[in-house]
Design brief:
mainly alpha; 4-stranded mixed β-sheet; single chain
Length: 404
């Protein structure tokens, strides 16, 4: 056996082992505690009136048009930048890092400016359908803290990427752990930041019920806070942020304004505590760890003929490739998210043992958020990161049947 053949065999074995390890990790991450359930076959007309179905369909069609238009505008902007920006950057003579900072700023400002009209149109569309006021300043104020953190993280990632790509041939193997560490640090810190931006529960009875649910879900001590969002939306929502000691459940104050029953509020809280119990934030970071190396390798491959990512003028092309990859992978990302949301629903049913309230909650989402009970297939694949309302209602029915 020649030395060249031995090297090829060794490389093949390394790739095979890495692929097997990747698939094993992905299988562990995608597993949930939800049993196999039949969630299809329910007639949506049993749970929603014809008028409600028509109303949610019209509202959803508007959001779909805005998403398609916004996505197209973003891709067009990136194509233009990929063609026009490189010559200007080469003529600046700012060096690798200086050029990366300038290009990064141009990219971020352009993408923000392109997305802003569609975001404001979405805000107006919600107002048009009675889901909140058209208060642009209040909306911008609610977005500012998250936007600032994302901008700092993006600029740090761009500088790191260009700096290391200019020095090392297999830079993606070095950048990947650094990016994973940054993602983990931001996810961890977000729990404390969101906790600080919200206030404690003001209802002693609800606080006692939260304590009981935490005991049932085995996540005792998880802070549950309330965020005031009524200045820019009437929709109800809640989310889980952070992990480990920073794990925090945040309820929108609109959820507690009386539009939903106490039993439905308990289901929402149990659902969010279910995310904490299942460590879904950590699992999401795990998916980032699995995907970041092949993603960076593809970016390196896409820019190799132009000199690689060590040259800041290639950043717009890399951003375009990244946007396309994200768009193509959205169905897979949403499929994983829907599995985690379904697991949180299942844990909420087991914790509250109140399928009637859970069913009413999911029915109410058509009224409070104008969600379509059964969206179109393409919408389901690309835009829905939660199970459909009919799938969630079906889960309550299946849970009830299993208790008989």
């Amino acid at each position: 056996m020649s030395e060249k053949t031995a090297i090829r065999i060794g490389a093949g074995l390394t790739v095979a082992v890495a692929a097997a390890a990747w698939c094993s990790a992905a299988w562990l991450l995608v597993r949930t505690s939800v049993p196999t359930l039949q969630l299809a076959g329910l007639d949506e007309h049993r749970y929603f009136s014809a008028a409600a179905l028509a109303r949610s369909a019209r509202y959803s069609h508007g959001l779909q048009v805005l998403w398609l238009a916004g996505t197209a505008a973003t891709l067009i902007a990136l194509v233009v930048l990929a063609r026009r920006l490189p010559p200007a950057v080469r003529g600046m003579g700012l060096g690798r890092i200086g050029g990366a900072v300038i290009v990064g700023m141009v990219l971020l400002v352009t993408l923000w400016a392109v997305s802003l009209p569609f975001s404001l149109a979405g805000l107006w569309w919600q107002h048009h359908w009675g889901l909140g006021p058209f208060d642009v300043l209040a909306w911008l104020d609610s977005q500012w803290s998250g936007l600032a953190a994302e901008t700092v993280a993006a600029m740090a990632a761009i500088v790191l990427l260009v700096g290391l790509a200019g020095r090392y041939r297999r830079w993606w193997l070095i950048v990947a752990p650094a990016l994973i560490a940054v993602v983990a640090a931001f996810a961890f810190g977000a729990g404390y930041l969101d906790r600080a931006a919200a206030h404690r529960l003001g209802d002693p009875r609800l606080a006692a019920e939260v304590h009981q649910l935490e005991q049932t879900e085995r996540v005792a001590g998880t802070p549950v806070r309330v965020q005031d969002v009524s200045s820019w939306t009437k929709q109800v929502n809640a989310f889980t942020t952070g992990f480990g000691p920073s794990s925090t459940v945040v309820l929108w104050n609109t959820l507690l304004a009386g539009g939903v029953s106490q039993g439905e509020v308990r289901v929402v809280i149990a659902h969010e505590l279910g995310h904490v119990r299942s460590r879904h934030v950590l699992k999401t970071i795990g998916w980032t760890a699995l995907l970041v190396v092949p993603l960076l390798w593809l970016l390196a491959l896409a820019t190799r003929r132009r000199g690689g990512l060590g040259r800041p003028e290639n950043l717009p092309s890399a951003a375009l490739v990244f946007a396309v990859l994200v768009l193509v992978s959205l169905p897979a990302q949403n499929a994983v998210s829907r599995r985690y949301e379904a697991e949180a629903d299942w844990r909420a049913l087991n914790a509250t043992r109140d399928p009637a309230s859970a069913r009413k909650l999911f029915q109410s989402f058509e009224r409070t958020s104008l969600q379509q009970p059964s969206p179109a297939t393409w919408d389901y694949l690309w835009l829905e990161n939660h199970p459909t309302l009919m799938q969630r209602i079906a889960m309550t029915e299946r849970w009830r049947e299993r208790q008989r």
